[in-house]
Design goal:
The complex is a heterodimer of chains A (433) and B (887). Chain A has 433 residues and is α/β, with parallel strands linked by helices. Chain A has two domains: 161 residues, 3-Layer(aba) Sandwich (D-Maltodextrin-Binding Protein, domain 2); 201 residues, Periplasmic binding protein-like II (D-Maltodextrin-Binding Protein, domain 2). Chain A has 19 helices and 14 strands. A six-stranded mixed beta sheet of chain A has the order 2-1-3-12-6-13, with helices on both faces. In chain A, strand 1, helix 2 and strand 2 form a beta-alpha-beta unit. Chain A is elongated and about 120 Å long. About 3% of the residues of chain A have low confidence. Among the domains of chain B are: 102 residues, Beta-Lactamase, CATH 3.30.450; 150 residues, Heat Shock Protein 90; 128 residues, Rossmann fold, CATH 3.40.50.2300. In chain B, a hairpin with a 5-residue loop joins strand 4 and strand 5. The chains are: A alpha/beta (433), B alpha/beta (887). Chains A and B meet through helix 1, strand 1, strand 2, helix 3 and helix 18 of A and helix 1, helix 2, helix 3 and helix 6 of B.
């Protein structure tokens, strides 16, 4: 009897426990969802032929954080310049955007659009990760850090090795040698200098180097800051020299109709012998459709000296990141910003864009032999100059770059062009600081 | 435990189960309501979020504020989070697929929205740039207009200004202007500026025109990009619209699915609660039933046991272990039945003893019956086996009664004699005995009756088809217990074929023996005859002989030639006397031979040939001899004359004649020779081919023996049948040849005379032959050197060769007893002088070397006995061949 009672109790317990598990609630409390991921916008001008490396860099940084993500927006290079000013003026800017070191950043700082980066600079020991020269020339404005240097380009002559070898031409060290070589090349029916200035800015490097090699960096700085006139003999000499080169027929006839990438492709095919361009053009040489090999198929030489007594300067832009003061999630942007100096994203950007990494964490050995030689050129330069449109005020740069196009079309009227330019510059009421 | 406690416990358990059922039902219902509430919240929340998403997207499209785009992303993240939470219901395949679709569509929407925002920003950037470029264009136009009046083209300037104003107007509201209008205006402006860019224009104006044109070009470039991005933006917007609609449909489906699943689950809850209730009720009933049984069963068991005792079953006991009153009553009952059981046990043992005795007797009787059945079965099996032996044994078994009438006749007897058991039953045994053996058989049975012992004999029997066969018989009497004969058993084997083969073998053995003897005699005879015939022929060359002597010598020569013919016949038997075969027509030989033998007699010939009788491989001479011998026999059988029928037929390889079994598979030519003679009795017929057996007084007894031997050596078959008073028929079968007929050999004229005197070396072991040859050759003018055997011959040949006067011809005997013979000697001579001329001479004219002498290096052959003419003709031919060769 006792056994029977125990059996009944066991059966009843099984039923009770089984029923609980069968009927137990399967649904947790439903709560309205909320966005877990914070997004910040990054506007940049690395679009079209300049787009190499930027997406890879952003992906690496996004991969390092689950909660914060960067939405990168690539904008037309020229449209970017006006849009960013417009957005900042309207008060709906992105959290951060790429920009050019120099006078352009100074202008935004002057207008109070940018957020100082001193705190994150200090918290992340950024001084130790960048060269002091770079910090001094590119990052600091009004004694505060506003600009995080992302990459550095240098402008040199890139040439077609096969053309030079065929005509037995060595990379020239003096301007006269360059002109003599151009004459030989032209005689062979090949364009000596390819230039694509439909977007205006690619022509500026000729003026930069001619002025720097003849008048020197101090005069150029004065001109850029509006302390000298465009009708000064130094400027007239530079324009005259350039006009002579143009008159000699050493440039391609369609220089004002094509862009810089098309000009580079002329060098690739051997239609032209060389082009004066920044290191971003390496991606055009090595990518489709050129697919040339560094040093074997194309190589570089620095703009030759004209007056050996003049300080040896190199020209090139420094791209970097700035954070907007009035954006919604600028804290997130500030948090993510130092990651751009990490070794992995820096190398990715360098590989894709052809630029040099700014972070000292990236070793020189990480570059290809050609880029190592370029890097040496940067290190060996006595002076570093930003290119014209980054060195002078945007309004003046606008007029100046128009004058370059005019010079390409009417080299005989170089002086009239300069008179016109000087009048335009004088008409500007506001001078850059 | 007392009855009252048991009953109380039952009711308590029932109450517990009832409470349990109620609790479960309440719990299930509460969960069902909560689930319904949850799905309501879930669906309404999700719908709200989609509504927010659509509004945020619309706001962004309209105002393009970054804040709205962030709202879109935040809402997407919120939806994704809600969907990724623990599900409302247990997962199903369809639910997973739907969730995957929603997630995929949501991801697609998010990616497209991201692209849309990028395009929107780009669009905005380009819009901003357009305004800048327009400002520059405006400024350039102003500068140009300031310069152009100097050209005095005010109308153009005016138009330019108006158009520029239009452009400004267009740019102020891009959306209201068509792309084509915009570009058309730019084209018109360009066409206005172009003339000022010409080389002949003033430099300042040219420069201003360039600036204006360039500003216009840059503006156009930016405008192009602006319109491109506008198209892209519209396309992305349209896609976003489609995606959000698709998402809404999927979400509706998902909510419906969740609701359906939940309702189904609630239904299952209801069913489960019902099942638990029913199960608990059943369990309670079982418990109640069990407890009542615990009370009632002991009493029922006691009652049942008492009924068993009443029926006489004293083995029954009551199995109640309880300690209550019923338990006590059960134990007293069991004690009572135990005493009754021991009383009945004694009676039961006696009863079993009696039953054991009956069983033992029954087993003995059963065993005897079984043994008898087994013996009968064994007998039946034995009889069946004996009958099987009789039926299957290959010899005939015939059972006769005491009157020699057939009682039983097995299948082998049926095969041998052709009569069935039914036909043979009751017939006298003599009905299968050949006429000539009836007496012999009668004697056998008489002897058995007298001796009452078995008797063996062989006698001829006649089959149902009339065929005479030879039976080998074993006969034995059946004796009864009084030693009286009750019948006979005869066992017979058909040995006809076996007997035929034995006789055939015997005949062949006889021929072999005769051949050996004949070969030796013939060789010696030939040597002797060579001397006789040669000397006679030499003697006949003497022109001074008297006529009478010449006649005597001629008679001697004839007799010698007959003797030569006889030795030729003897050589046919000789071992190794192979025929020299060639493809030949049997028809021609038949006609030729028959005509020759029967020419001028009283016997006529009736030919009957198949058309195109196949050729045979045969020795013409030997085959002619065969035909002649048979026809001579036939003519002898018809002393009064008559007709001999000669037939020749083709037999295909498919012929099935039993006597030609050994030639089966070959096409044959059948020669049939039939006479109308007196015929022959069987005993003569059996010996007809024996050598030296003849029924003719002047017969040699060799003719048909030679015939038989020739046919055997040709691979053929010969048989004979004869009916007394009707005639005899010979059948000859020869293998047909597939080759074409041989052409006749070249006929050499024997009348050739010697033209040159040769040095001739003669080798023969018989002195008389050597002398004869020396005389014959010397008579023809040749120089002759003689020797006895091969070594001597070789030595002489070599000597003459070294002397420089080589021997022109060697004539050598083939067989030299105790010395080197012709075959070996010839080979050695040829080794010394490869072009030596050698002639072989032999009494073994049937030797293969004689018929194929070229193969052994000889140039000619002389068959002994030969005449002087034979020798002269042979040498003349050799000389003629030599002359021909030299020419």
């Amino acid at each position: 009897m006792r056994n029977v009672i125990v059996a009944i109790i066991i059966v009843a317990s099984i039923i009770l426990i089984g029923s609980y598990y069968y009927f137990r609630p399967a649904t947790p409390t439903i709560e309205p969802g909320s966005a877990a991921i914070q997004r910040v916008s990054l506007y940049h001008y690395f679009s079209g032929a300049l787009s190499g490396g930027v997406n890879e860099t952003v992906e690496i940084i996004n991969g390092s954080s689950d909660q914060e993500k960067i939405i990168a927006n690539a904008l037309d290079h020229e449209a970017f310049k006006s849009l960013i000013i417009s957005n900042l003026a309207k008060g709906d800017p992105p959290e951060f955007f790429t920009y050019w070191a120099g006078i352009k950043t100074q202008e935004l700082v002057d207008q109070g659009y940018l957020e100082p980066l001193d705190d994150i600079w200090r918290d992340n020991s950024i001084d130790a990760r960048l060269s002091s020269t770079l910090v001094e020339t590119a990052a600091v404005y009004d004694d505060k850090k506003y600009f995080l240097p992302l990459d550095q380009h240098i402008v040199v002559f890139f040439y077609n090795v096969a053309v030079f070898e065929k005509l037995n031409i060595q990379p020239p060290e003096h301007f006269d040698e360059l002109i003599a070589a151009a004459a030989i090349i032209k005689d062979q029916g090949i364009t000596p200098f390819a230039l694509g200035a439909v977007e205006r800015w690619p022509a500026q490097f000729w003026f930069d180097y001619l002025l720097l090699r003849t008048a020197g960096p101090d005069y150029r700085k004065a001109l850029m800051q509006g302390e000298a006139s465009y009708l000064d003999p130094q400027v007239v000499e530079a324009y005259e020299q350039w006009a002579n080169v143009i008159r000699s027929g050493f440039f391609n006839a369609d220089a004002n109709e094509i862009d810089w990438a098309a000009a580079t492709r002329q060098v690739c095919t051997g239609e032209a012998a060389m082009t004066l361009m920044g290191t971003w053009t390496i991606q055009e040489f090595t990518g489709d459709p050129c697919n040339l090999s560094e040093e074997e198929d194309f190589d570089f030489f620095a703009f030759p000296q004209i007056n050996k007594e003049v300080v040896y300067s190199s020209v090139g832009p420094v791209d970097g990141l700035v954070v907007t003061k009035d954006s919604n999630n600028k804290e997130i942007a500030l948090k993510l910003l130092p990651h751009f100096l990490d070794s992995e994203p820096q190398q990715a950007f360098s590989r894709g864009s052809g630029a040099f990494a700014t972070s000292l964490d990236v070793q020189e050995s990480a570059y290809s032999p050609l880029k190592q030689r370029l890097f040496q050129l940067i290190k060996n330069s006595d002076h570093w100059a930003f290119n014209y449109d980054l060195a002078t005020s945007p309004a003046v740069a606008d007029f100046g770059m128009d004058s370059f196009n005019e010079l390409l079309a009417f080299p005989d009227q170089y002086y009239e062009i300069l008179i016109n330019l000087d009048l335009q510059v004088q008409s500007l009421t506001t001078r850059p600081k | 435990m007392s009855f009252s406690i048991k009953i109380g416990l039952s009711f308590t358990l029932l109450l517990i189960f009832t409470t349990l059922v109620a609790s479960i039902s309440w719990y299930g219902t509460a969960e069902s309501i909560r689930n319904q509430n949850a799905i309501y919240i879930f669906s309404s929340d999700l719908k709200q979020k989609f509504s927010r998403l659509a509004i945020a997207e619309l706001n962004y499209s309209t105002e393009r504020q970054p804040e709205y785009s962030k709202q879109v992303f935040a809402t997407i993240a919120s939806i994704r989070k809600q969907l990724s939470k623990e599900p409302l219901t247990a997962g199903t395949g369809e639910r997973h697929r739907l969730l995957e679709q929603i997630t995929s569509e949501l991801n697609g929407y998010e990616e497209n929205f991201l692209r849309y925002t990028r395009s929107a920003i780009d669009y905005e950037a380009l819009e901003s740039r357009l305004y800048n470029e327009l400002d520059k264009l405006s400024s350039a136009t102003t500068d140009f207009l300031k310069t152009s009046p100097a050209q005095g083209d005010e109308v153009n300037d005016y138009i330019l200004e108006i158009m520029l104003n239009n452009l400004r107007h267009f740019s102020a509201s891009f959306v209201d202007v068509t792309r084509d209008n915009h570009f058309q205006l730019i084209a018109e402006l360009t066409s206005l500026i172009t003339p000022y860019l010409e080389q002949n224009a003033e430099r300042a104006i040219q420069l201003q025109a360039f600036r204006l044109n360039r500003s216009l070009g840059v503006y156009k470039l930016a405008l192009q990009k602006y319109y491109d991005i506008q198209v892209q933006l519209n396309s992305q917007k349209s896609l976003l619209h489609q995606q959000i609609q698709a998402l809404q449909v999927l979400i509706e489906k998902y909510i419906t699915l969740e609701r359906d699943t939940l309702e189904e689950k609630n239904f299952r809850y209801l069913l489960a609660a019902l099942a638990v209730t029913l199960f608990s009720g059943l369990l309670a009933l079982c418990v109640a039933f069990y407890l009542s049984r615990r009370i009632v069963v002991p009493i029922a068991s006691l009652k049942q046991s008492a009924q068993q005792v009443v029926k006489g079953n004293l083995d029954t006991t009551v199995d109640v272990q309880s300690t209550d009153e019923i338990g006590d009553l059960s134990r007293i009952f069991n004690e009572m039945t135990g005493k009754l059981r021991s009383s009945f046990a004694h009676l039961e043992r006696y009863k079993k003893h009696l039953e054991g005795l009956v069983d033992k007797r029954t087993n003995e009787l059963t065993k005897k019956v079984r043994e008898k059945e087994l013996a009968e079965e064994s007998l039946r099996t034995s009889q069946k086996n004996i009958q099987r032996v009789i039926d299957q044994i290959p010899v005939g078994i015939i059972v006769l009664d005491e009157y020699l009438l057939i009682q039983q006749w097995n299948p082998a007897a049926q095969r041998i004699f052709g009569y069935s058991n039914f036909e043979a039953h009751g017939e006298h045994t003599s009905f299968i005995v050949a006429d000539e053996a009836k007496q012999q058989v009668e004697d056998v049975f008489t002897r058995m009756k007298e001796t009452k012992r078995e008797v063996r004999n062989k006698n001829y029997n006649r089959t149902r088809s009339g065929e005479i066969i030879l039976g080998n018989w074993y006969n034995a009497p059946f004796l009864d217990h009084k030693n009286e004969i009750t019948g006979f058993i005869s066992i017979v084997e058909d040995i006809t074929e076996k007997d035929r083969k034995e006789k055939e073998h015997l005949k062949f053995a006889k021929l072999e023996a005769a051949g050996v003897l004949a070969g030796g005699i013939a060789h010696d005879f030939n040597n002797i005859l060579t001397a006789i015939l040669g000397n006679i022929s030499l003697a006949l060359t003497d022109k001074e002989l008297s006529e009478n002597t010449r006649k005597l010598l001629l008679n001697s020569e004839k007799a010698s030639i007959r003797a030569k013919s006889l030795t030729q016949q003897l050589l046919t038997f000789a071992k190794g006397g192979e025929p020299v075969k060639e493809t030949t027509s049997l028809r021609d030989i038949i006609i030729e031979s028959a005509s020759f033998v029967l020419h001028g007699g009283n016997v006529s010939i009736d030919y009957d040939f198949d058309e195109d009788v196949w050729p045979v491989e045969a020795d013409k001479g030997q085959l002619s001899q065969v035909i002649q011998n048979i026809i001579l026999n036939a003519r002898h059988a018809m002393p009064e004359g008559g007709t001999i029928y000669l037939g020749c037929y083709n037999l295909s390889k498919d012929q099935k004649l039993p006597e030609l079994a050994e030639l089966a598979g070959h096409p044959l030519v059948h020669l049939k020779i039939r006479d109308q003679g007196i015929g022959m009795p069987r005993n003569i017929l059996e010996r007809i081919f024996d050598p030296y057996f003849s029924t003719k007084q002047d017969g040699s007894g060799l003719g048909l023996a030679v015939t038989y031997s020739i046919i055997q050596k040709h691979g053929g078959h010969i048989s004979v049948e004869s009916d007394q008073g009707i005639g005899t028929t010979f059948h000859v079968y020869l293998p047909a040849s597939s080759a074409e007929l041989s052409k006749d050999a070249e006929i050499i004229s024997p009348a050739t005379t010697a033209e040159q005197a040769w040095k001739i070396l003669v080798m023969d072991d018989e002195e008389m032959v050597r002398d004869l040859l020396e005389m014959m050759l010397a008579d023809q003018g040749h120089t002759v050197i003689c020797c006895r055997e091969g070594s001597e011959c070789l030595s002489l040949f070599e000597q003459e060769l070294q002397k420089g006067s080589p021997v022109d011809l060697v004539i050598m005997d083939l067989t030299v007893p105790g010395g080197m013979g012709g075959k070996e000697s010839a080979q050695k001579i040829l080794d010394l002088k490869p072009d030596a001329r050698i002639v072989v001479a032999s009494g073994y004219s049937n030797d293969p070397i004689m018929s194929d002498y070229h193969a052994y290096g000889f140039m000619a052959a002389l068959s002994k006995p030969f005449t002087i003419e034979d020798v002269r003709a042979t040498i003349a031919k050799l000389q003629k061949d030599t002359v021909n060769k030299e020419n």
